[in-house]
Design brief:
The protein is mainly β. It has one helix and 13 strands; from the N terminus they run E-E-H-E-E-E-E-E-E-E-E-E-E-E. A hairpin with a 2-residue loop joins strand 6 and strand 7.
Length: 191
């Protein structure tokens, strides 16, 4: 089920997320970059530098506010945090509304490019109210991700290209405040 809240809303730019007829029946329109990423999919997160002090938290359903489990960095304006990666072990991930960064509390406003890509731990992700943008490939190739919850994503405006490529999402309700959905944001969702 794919629903955009308030379908009558003007200004929503939904780019071509449909399968290109020039590809074969196995969803195999693959760029050289995708092939390279796919070849390294198993090692993608292993190659990331994981901080030594990361807790092995396993309490599903809780907001993981331990800043040691989140790799974040400041946005260009210095007003909010971008999630670069998550190192916790929760299957049900709730994106925190805010986290500490260099001793100061900041709102989490963006999910960075490839932040959760190729991760098979996550089955459910809830987007918090401060998230304004989800960058390209943020959740692509998350083969266990069946649910993305936008119910509190009141600030979300942009879902970039390839964000959920090849994930088994069962249904998605796009918030009415989203004004731009990138090319192939939901391409290959196969549930």
């Amino acid at each position: 089920t794919w629903v955009i809240e308030d379908e009558e809303k003007e200004g929503v730019d939904v780019k071509d997320n449909t399968k290109d007829e020039s590809t074969d029946s196995n969803n195999s329109e693959i760029s050289e970059e995708t092939i390279n990423d796919s070849d390294n999919a198993e090692n993608y997160l292993e190659d990331e530098e994981i901080p030594e002090n990361v807790d092995e938290q396993t309490l599903d359903g809780n907001v993981d506010e331990d800043e040691r489990n989140w790799y974040t960095y400041l946005n260009e304006e210095g007003t909010g945090l971008i999630i670069g990666n998550y190192f916790g072990n929760l299957a049900n991930v709730i994106i925190p509304e805010q986290l500490m960064y260099n001793g100061q509390q900041y709102p989490v406003t963006e999910i960075g490019e490839g932040a959760f890509r190729y991760n098979e731990k996550y089955t459910n992700v809830k987007i918090s109210k401060n998230i304004e943008k989800i960058d390209a490939d943020a959740f692509s190739y998350c083969y266990s991700l069946t649910n993305i919850d936008f119910s509190e994503a009141e600030s979300l405006k942009i879902i970039e290209k390839n964000t959920f490529v090849s994930t088994p999402l069962k249904s998605v309700v796009i918030p009415k405040n989203v004004i731009d959905i990138g090319e192939r944001a939901f391409y290959g969702c196969y549930a």
